[in-house]
Amino acid sequence: MSSPYTGAPAPSPATQQNHSLAFRVMRLSRPSLRPDPAALLRFDPRDVFLPEDALTSPDPSAAAELLHGLLHPPDSAVSTTAVPGDFTFRDRFLLRDPADALALPGLLVLPQAFGAIYLGETFCSYISINNSSGLEAREVIIKAEIQTERQRILLLDTSKSPVESIRSGGRYDFIVEHDVKELGAHTLVCTALYNDGDAERKYLPQFFKFTVSNPLSVRTKVRTIKDTTYLEACIENHTKSNLYMDQVDFEPAEQWSATILEADEHPSVVKSTIRDLCKQPILIRAGGGIYNYLYQLRPSSDESSQIKAEGSSVLGKFQITWRTNLGEPGRLQTQNINSTPTPSKDVDLRAVKVPPVIFLERPFMVNLCVTNQTGKTVGPFEVFLASNISGEQKAVLVNGLQKLVLPLVEAFESINFDLSMVATQLGVQKISGITMYAVQERKYYEPLPDIEIFVDAE
Q1: Residue-wise pLDDT tens digits, 60-114
Q2: Domain spans of the chain?
Q3: For tag attachment on the chain, is the N or C end more exposed, with fewer CB atoms within 10 Å?
Q4: pTM score above 0.85
Q5: φ, ψ of residue 43 in degrees (nearest 5)
Q6: 46 phi and psi, to 5 degrees?
Q7: Fold for domain 13-29+112-213?
Q8: Does domain 216-338 have CATH number 2.60.40.1230?
Q9: What is each CA distance from 419 to 169, 363, 366, 367, 443, in whole angstroms?
């Protein structure tokens, strides 16, 4: 389907006199269903068969009997039951069928202009070059290209095989397509180089301008909890038609693996292979409708810590495909999504293992790990339990030597060690204040985050 011809601004009189040819352009696009409020006032057979004053007469039942006699003759097999209903004009607003609520006349409407053109769509145009003069145009070289602020894309060039002739009153038609990948002003430039009736070589340029808008926006939020990163994406529809999302895939960077998190389905929903293959598209309604996606990202290799230390914050990008109400496709790829850069630590101290059962006043071991995230050797270190600023007695203390000495740690290497501790109070307690000190650099590192434990009696 296509929209009616749409041309460039009217040429000057001089141009009209000098050129035999002229371009006309129409965009090939699908029709649309346009609601018609008047469709609610449905046509009724009584308007044809009954007299003008039949419905306003004092006895509307007479009109009902007359109409029934016309529609169902006496010899008809149809029951002679009277036609029910109110035979006045006031019931014309009643919905006789659920489809009437759509107010659709059942006709498709062609666009009357170029219409809205969105990023990610395919711009398809039907171009006709007409000869409206009394002379024949020969050896016609036709070119069509799209010009944007950044580039020029050639769509058609007949330089190697010119159109031999366009007779008087004739035309030459062709179709061009272009995948729209840029926002902003676009110009379809159509040019013709031809010989007119006087064998004079003439050049005809015509310009058709249109603007490309963004069909949707993708807003993201990134949150990091320990070694897990969560990416939330909100997709908003900026078009005037519903979008049916066929695909919304997040392609993570090499150092990440991504898993989409979805709400649990109702137990009545039966999972099957056919249902997975025939998955329904997600509807995002026109004029600001939104849909949210949530992804869980984890490091995909053991070298991820080294990559993070080098300052890489790229998480990945989205591949999005959709269709409109009548199936017109669209496709977008977002730019790289970056995480909020976090300051990297030269030396990282973390807890690896804590016993599941801890008894009061009985020693237990906490397994810790020190990781050197630099390219040089660091250490030695001292590990100890810092006292509370408030001076309160801790519920969990170091058992034995108050300072544990650790050896040198090579570049990008880790060492594990055990710290003996003892709990002095029952219930839920915290191991807090485990601190590391670099002896040579005379530098204190941030204490280990508090670890909650449960202390039970024997």
Answers
A1: 566 666 666 655 666 545 444 444 444 455 555 555 555 555 555 556 776 666 7
A2: 13-29+112-213, 37-102, 216-338, 347-456
A3: C
A4: no
A5: -70, 140
A6: -60, -25
A7: Immunoglobulin-like (2.60.40)
A8: yes
A9: 96, 10, 5, 7, 21
> What is the dihedral sign for C-alpha 65, 66, 71, 75?
positive
CA 436 – CA 50 distance, rounded (Å): 100
**What's the one-letter identity of residue 210?**
F
CB atoms within 10 A of CB 438: 16
314-334: pLDDT as tens digits: 888 999 999 887 788 889 988
Pick 262 or 57 by higher pLDDT: 262
Tokens 């001089």, residue located = 14
- Please tell me which residue, 254 or 345, carries the higher pLDDT value: 254
Quick: pLDDT tens for 3-58. Answer: 444 444 444 443 444 778 899 888 887 776 666 655 545 555 555 555 555 555 56
The per-residue pLDDT of the chain, averaged, comes to: 78
Give the CATH superfamily of 347-456. Answer: Immunoglobulins (2.60.40.10)
Name the region of 451 (left: φ>0; alpha: ψ -120 to 50; beta: rest). beta
* 90 CB burial (10 A radius; 0-12, 13-18, 19+): exposed
Cα–Cα nearest to 185, from 214, 216, 151, 209:
209
Residue 398 predicted with pLDDT over 70: yes
Which H or E element spans position 123? strand 122-131
Q: In the numeric block, which tokens belong to residue 87? A: 């035979």
* One-letter amino acid for residue 34 of the chain: R
Question: Which whole-number Å values give the CA distances from 307 to 276, 296, 303, 310, 374, in the listed order?
Answer: 36, 19, 6, 5, 11
Query: What are 325's two structure tokens?
Result: 């109400």
The CB-side HSE value for 354 (13 A sphere, CA atoms) comes to 15
Q: Token digits for 37?
A: 């409020």
Sequence-ordered list of residues with C-beta below 8 angstroms from that of 137, at least 6 positions apart, any chain: 20, 21, 131, 165, 166, 194, 195, 196
Question: CA-CA distances (angstroms) from residue 178 to 64, 152, 210, 411?
Answer: 61, 12, 13, 53
- The pLDDT assigned to 256 comes to 85
427: left (phi over 0), alpha (psi -120 to 50) or beta: left
User: Which residue did the predictor score with more confidence, 110 or 441?
Assistant: 441
- pLDDT over 80 (residue 347): yes
d(CA 114, CA 208): 10
Nearest to 407 by CA among 363, 440, 359: 440
In this predicted structure, the answer to whether residue 145 has a pLDDT above a threshold of 80 is: yes
Please check whether the two domains, 216-338 and 347-456, share a CATH topology.
Answer: yes
